[in-house]
Design brief:
It is a single chain. This protein is α+β, with helices and mostly antiparallel strands. It contains five helices and seven strands; from the N terminus they run αββαββαααβββ. Strands 1, 2, 3, 4, 5, 6 and 7 form a seven-stranded antiparallel beta sheet that branches. A hairpin with an 8-residue loop joins strand 1 and strand 2. The longest helix has 14 residues. It is globular. The two termini are about 20 Å apart.
């Protein structure tokens, strides 16, 4: 058992950012007043982004995290740890990807006059922060029989991540 735990911990080492620790990857929520307790597993996920309006399908990452947790039924929450990124469920097909990028560019365009850009020398990503505010940093998806309960077309690649250049750290809590 100890060797399995060490192998699992090593497998997630590449997902840690500077100064990040995931020593409590499995936590139990304490019961109060005789209530039942529930195990919560948090799994760090790493996504490399190319910037701009990059959309990345993370469905397989989340499904693999779910399989690794060996949970049969419940909910999974995917949380993005960055204010210029977001997570959403969309159909994975080229037309929707293009339409989503067009929507972002028309609704919240890159513009040097955004106050974030004006008041923070060297910053040019005010639009990314605003897009993240509109879309949100997390989603919650039910699962049963170890599988995410996504819609028919969403199963092909429903979870999306959009953000700036760099590595995005997500956390899937099961």
């Amino acid at each position: 058992r100890r060797a399995e735990e060490e192998a699992d911990r090593h497998r997630h080492d590449h997902c840690r950012g500077p100064g990040q620790s995931f020593d409590n990857e499995r936590a139990t929520i304490s019961p109060s007043n005789g209530a039942m307790s529930m195990a919560v597993t948090t799994v760090p996920l790493k996504v490399d982004m190319r910037g701009g309006t990059h959309i990345e399908n993370v469905t397989k990452l989340v499904q693999d995290a779910l399989a690794g947790a060996k949970a049969a039924a419940g909910i999974v929450t995917v949380f993005v740890k960055h204010t210029t990124a977001s997570i959403m469920i969309i159909e994975d097909e080229p037309g929707i990807r293009a339409d989503t990028k067009t929507f972002w560019d028309r609704t919240v365009p890159a513009d040097p006059s955004w106050q974030h850009n004006q008041k923070n020398p060297g910053e040019d990503n005010g639009h990314s922060h605003l897009r993240g505010q509109l879309e949100g940093p997390s989603i919650t998806i039910p699962f049963a029989n170890g599988s995410l309960l996504l819609g028919t077309y969403d199963r092909e690649g429903g979870l999306r991540y959009a953000g700036n250049v760099g590595t995005g750290f997500h956390h899937a809590s099961l």
